[in-house]
Amino acid sequence: MELNGAELNAVELNGESVGGSLPGPVTVTPVLSVVWDVRLLLNGVDASDLLTGQVRIEREEGARAIADFSLLLDVGPVNPGSYVGQSVELYYRDRRDGVWTDTLRFKGQVIRPQFNLQTRVLACECSDRLQEAVEAMDVAAIDALVGGLWSADVFEPVEGRLRWDYALERMSTQAASLQRSVEGALQVTPWAAGAAAFVIPAGAVLDGTLDWVPVELNDRINVVEVAADYRFIRLRERHQDFIWEHPAVEGVSIIDGFCLTWGREDNTEVPDIGMVEDASSGAGYQAILSTATWGLVPATGDGVLCDPPFGWTNPYPDLLLSATWTSAMRWSQRVTEQYTLRVEATASVAQAGEVISRERVALETESDREAEFESAEFTEHEPDATEDALGDWVVDLREEERRTEALSCSLAMAATTILGAHRGNRFAFQLPTSDTLGFRLEHTLHVQDEILGQPVQCRAKVFNLLDEWDLDSGSALTSIQLAVSQGGGDVTDPLTPPAPPPSTPPGTPPSLIILPTQLGSRNISPIYDEELDGFAGNYTVDDLDINPELEAFPRRFDLTAPEIPEDHRDEYAASQARTYQLAIPDDLLEL
Which residues contact 98 (CB under 8 A, 6 or more apart)? Predict the structure, then answer.
C-alpha cells in the first residue's frame, strides 16, 4: 500500500529507507482509525498467537535496539533456557482497504527469558546485539565501517581490548552515531539534520504529548581545552673551533718561521698532535673533526731550504708549529612541545558564558639511536643533521605523523563533545504507530503543530523511537524524540594541528678560540701561569746556566671547553597555543 506515493514498508537491506531518497519530504496523513496486530517470528516460526500483554521496542542513536514481549505458554514442560539466543522478528501489521501490511520493527535475539511459574508467562528481553556484532569484526573492518580518527597516544592500545570500545573511540571523533538498522545492518548516521524525510502536519501529533526538554546549562559544554605534551630526543653536536700558532710562525709561513727561529737557535719545545688530541678529550670533547689542519715541524733535511742553510734532523713526524681544528662533543637533550589548544563555540560562550571541559594527552618518542649517538666514534656530523641558530648540528628524533595524529584526534574529540552537548535538547511527541512506519534513526523530521493558537514547529534529527503496543487495550503508539541542535555561530575553523613551536634555546654560536703560548727557561720568559690554556714549554737553548733561578715550564698543552648553558643541555620546553572557533548548527525550532 502507498502513502502519498511512498510504500510504507519498502526498506532496503543496507539500512537506508526509501524516504531518505525521495525528491521531497513525505507528508504524514494521520490515520483516523486502524486495525492493527503484531506478528512475531521466533527462530523463523510464527509465534504471534502466544503474545500477551504489551510489546515494547526502543531504538536510540548509538545504542542497541531492545524489545520486550511476553508469551503465554500452553500447559506442559517449559525450559526457559532454550529460548536464549532464539532469533526474533517483530512486525507491526495494519489493515487498510482490506489489505494487511507487515512492517518490520525489530530484528534481534532473545537475551533473557524469565518464566513465571504461577502465570506461565515467559517474559522475553531481546536485543539486536549491536556490540556483539561489532565485537566479531576485525580492526580493519571497523576502520572501514566507522571511519573517524584514532591515536594510540590518545587511547589505549587496541590489542587485548573490546572492539566495541575501539569503535566508540573512533566514533568520539566525529559527529555521528553507530547503530544497527531495523534489518540488522551496521550503520553510521550523521548528527546533522538534513532535508526532512517526513513532515508531520498540524493535528497529527497526539494531544498533550508535545514536550520540550532543553539541555541544562551545566551540560552544554561550549569550550574544550586540550593540554598536549610531545616529548622527544634531540641529538646535539656542538663544534668548537681552535687555533694555536707557535710565536715563530705568527704571520708567516711554516718554513719561513722555522728558518728565522730554528736557524738562529731560538728553537723551543713544541707540542705534538697527540697532546692536542689529549687536551681536547680532556676538556670533554669526543672527537676532532676530519677538517683539522696540522702545521708540522719541517722534516729532516728541510734546513737546506733556509738562507743560510743549516743541518736539521727531526725524527718526530707529528710535532706541531701550528694547528687549526674543530673539537666536537655530543649529547642528547629532551625537548617538550607544550600545546594549549582551545576549541570554543563562540556564539554559545557569548550567550551564556563558558562551560569548560578539559582534556590532556601526552606522548613521548624514544629511540635506541640516542645511546649509539653518544658512544659512537665520529669525525663529522650525522648525515641527517641540520645546523641550528646555535651553530650546533642537531637531529630531532621526532615522529611528526604521530604528533599530528594525536593532536588531530584530540581536536576532533573536542569538537564532537561540543556539538554533542548542544544537541542534548529533546523535542518529544507521540503518534499512532501506523503514522510512523517509515521513520528511522537516520531521518530528519519536520513537526508542525499548534498550541493555544500559537504555531509550533521543529525540524531535527530523530534520536529515539519507542513503540508501545498494548494487546489488551488496543493502543499502538510510538514516542519520538528529536535531538535539536542549538548554539549558532558563523565561523568554523579547520581543526588543523599547529606547527611545532620554535624550540632552539637562546644563545649564539661558539666563537673561535685562539690558544696562547708561554715559553720558559730564558730571561725574557714570563711568569708561568698554570691556569693559562694553550701550550707551555721551554726554549731549547736556555739561560739556566746564567740564571739558575729561572723557572723551567712543564711541557703541556691544555684547553678548556666553554661552559654549556643549562637550557642547551637540560630538558627544554617550547609552547604553542591556538584557539579554534566552532559554529553550532541551529535546527529549526519555534515554540
Answer: none
Please list the residues that pair with 333 across neighbouring strands.
234
Q: Where, residue-wise, is CATH 2.30.300.10 in the chain? A: 31-128
By CB neighbour count within 10 A (0-12 exposed, 13-18 middle, 19+ buried), where does 258 fall?
A: buried
Which pTM does this prediction carry?
0.87
C-beta of residue 106 within 8 angstroms of C-beta of residue 182: yes
Nearest-angstrom CA–CA distance, 11 and 13: 6
For domain 31-128, the CATH class is mainly beta
Name 228's bridge partners: 339, 361
pLDDT in tens, the chain (591 residues): 233 223 333 333 233 433 344 457 999 999 888 899 999 999 999 999 999 999 999 999 999 999 999 999 988 888 999 999 999 999 999 998 889 999 999 999 999 999 998 899 999 999 999 999 999 999 999 999 999 999 999 999 999 899 999 999 999 999 999 999 999 999 999 999 999 999 999 999 999 999 999 999 999 999 999 999 999 999 999 999 999 999 999 999 999 999 998 888 889 999 999 999 999 999 999 999 999 999 999 999 999 999 999 999 999 999 999 999 999 999 999 999 999 999 999 999 999 999 999 999 999 999 999 999 999 999 999 999 999 999 999 999 999 999 999 999 999 999 999 999 999 999 999 999 999 999 999 999 999 998 888 899 999 999 999 999 999 999 999 999 999 999 999 999 999 999 999 999 999 999 999 999 999 999 999 999 999 999 999 999 888 888 888 989 999 999 999 999 999 999 999 999 999 999 999 999 998
> Three cell numbers at 291?
677538517
DSSP string, 526-591: PPP-TT--EEEEEBSS-STTT-TTSPPPP-EEE--PPPPPHHHHS-EEEEEEEEEE-PBP--EEE-
